[in-house]
Amino acid sequence: xxxxxxxxxxxxxxxxxxxxxxxxxxxxxxxxxxxxxxxxxxxxxxxxxxxxxxxxxxxxxxxxxxxxxxxxxxxxxx
Length: 78
Known about the structure:
This protein has about 80 residues and is an alpha+beta fold. The protein has a single domain (about 1-75), classed as 2-Layer Sandwich (Histidine-containing Protein, Chain: A). It has three helices and four strands, in the order βαββαβα. It has a four-stranded antiparallel sheet with strand order 1-4-2-3, with no helix packed on it. Strand 2 (about 25-30) and strand 3 (about 35-40) form a beta hairpin.
């Protein structure tokens, strides 16, 4: 598992992030306060407070896959 902080500031950011997360063949969760949301769920993401940074947890043992995924979403990292 690897954890980072991201920030999604617009509807377009959310759409691009969900598209990238949906391509991952491993679990990706977003954590905001006491809520844990599947990062592949656009409706779930919109239920979060997007004015704050969000913790992302990716559950994958393959470092190459993780690196490729984090490269895709690097514009959202804080």
